Amino acid sequence: MVGFRKKKGSSAESASVDGKASGISPEQSPASSPAKQEKSASPTAVAPPKPTPAKPPTLDDLPELLKTMVEEKGEKSAAATKRVYELCDVGHKQNRVPMVCSGKWDVLTPLALCLTQESGDGRHLACLALNNLSIPTENKRVMALGPAASDVIGGLCKVIQEDKQESYLCCICLMNLSFLEASITSILSHSPVPEGSAPVPPLENPNSLLRVLEKLLTNSPSAPKSGSGKSEGVRWACGLIKNLAKSEDNAKLFGQTEIPTCVVNNIKSTTAPPSRWTSNSLEDFSLFVILNLAQWPGSREALIASDAVEAVKPIMAEGDLQGLKATMACAFLGADWNSFPEAGAPAAKSVSELMTNIVEKKGKDGQYAYGVFKLYTATKAFRDLSLAAAAADGDSTEGVCTKCLSTPSAVALCLQIMSDLVLASNDDTEGASKYVPDAASAEYAIGAIEALIPAILQTGDPPRKSLASEKACSEIETMILAYSDLPGTSGKARASAVAAAGKIKAASGSARPILEISHDLWVQYRKREGQPLDQYLSQEKGIEVDESGPLDFLPCVSSSGESSCVIG
Description:
The chain is an all-alpha fold and about 575 residues long. The protein is built from 24 helices and four strands. The protein has helices spanning about 60-70, 75-85, 95-100, 110-115, 120-135, 135-145, 150-160, 165-180, 185-190, 210-220, 230-245, 250-255, 260-270, 280-295, 295-305, 310, 320-330, 345-360, 375-395, 410-425, 440-455, 465-485, 490-505, 515-530, and strands spanning about 5, 15, 545, 550. The strands form two sheets. The chain has a two-stranded antiparallel sheet with strand order 1-2. β1 and β2 (about 15) form a beta hairpin. α21 runs parallel beside α23 (about 490-505). The model is unreliable at about 5-45, about 550-560 and about 565-568 (pLDDT under 50).
């Protein structure tokens, strides 16, 4: 999230911290900085008294300020807007939530109205106030989904469309709101029409936010001057698109515009090496957009047509965050196994580590925080890497390319993701996981297992019998089949599960070191979580009896329900 202050000695806003408005001087009277005056002829003459400084505004002043903003024009309205901004600046963060969420005042509608003013001062201050108000999580829902959402989003969109100097501030405000994932489909669906007119889909409406963002990106110079209003607008628009593209429905819309081509061209045209890309830079945002669009079918083809793989492939060798993003994007876009540096070892390590970090709810120092990546993104990347490696192995039973992905820790994590879903689906089971994965993550996990089966089932050297491997095969097969029977499991995932379970069952008896160690790690995880350890064990159940006879021996019971059995 982004707020603003004026840098000392600078007329440009800083997009990194909250604070006071830039470009607007504090209210002064002409006497507050008096010019040199001629000496008075009278020795008793005195300078006029300095005016009393304006009293800082308080929340009690809001009703009068909001009224002035709406009813007055020009300087009076701008002055009132400035006072409202001061109430939520960096020195008054505590006011931000009450101003929006208390229900005492409607701050949003007057600020949205100010966005339509021709006066640059009022419009600029309204943008700054809305930015600061959009930072608290509580406010995002009200601003993006509440009664004033249409006015707020519409006003911000209109400033961007008219290419005002505050366009980049409006992009940042919308980006702040889009960190609330519940809002992202609503934000991109903004497609205004004249009152009383029939709705028009965003793709067919030049005034929709979708088309306005597309126009901003396509009309920008191929290499806008860094720090210029145009370059800042494009940069923060890409930051907004990065968040909006997390939705599959939104990605499908983006895939039908020129936006995928624009972000790929941003990567192609940069002269800065990836190691120099800073967080929130144009390149950082553009690569994130490519990553988010690449994982959805509705936008994937548009990236492939834009030659995204060739643009992104060199970045994989950088390692760190940019290398991780490039690796996952290339996996989503179907890059062949030979495209991944060092025989895929860094790709396997970084993506499996990401999966582990997400499940353990942690980030990686200096690279990403927890929550930046979703589990379904990481598991899909791991699945797609596994498919690329399996394709490179071909009919070989040695699993040469899949070996670097088939580490026991990665395999155990895939088993964990599936078994947690099975456990979560059973309301009667105690000791459910603290992290319940989504169905998509489990589907990608079984897809990876199926692709990696040749490497996972490699026999020991020398071949030998192993009771531990036999137990591992039996328990894993049972769990995978239980997953395949879940109501929400797709046909594709069910087919993968049945195929993998069949191969694991056939491998029982001989020592399978990778499978055995993976099973052991999975069991250790379940012990730590307090999960039942006998859930997937094959058990031969005896016949239960009571004083009337065997409970499940039906011939014992007559059609009248009376038992003819005798217990000696």
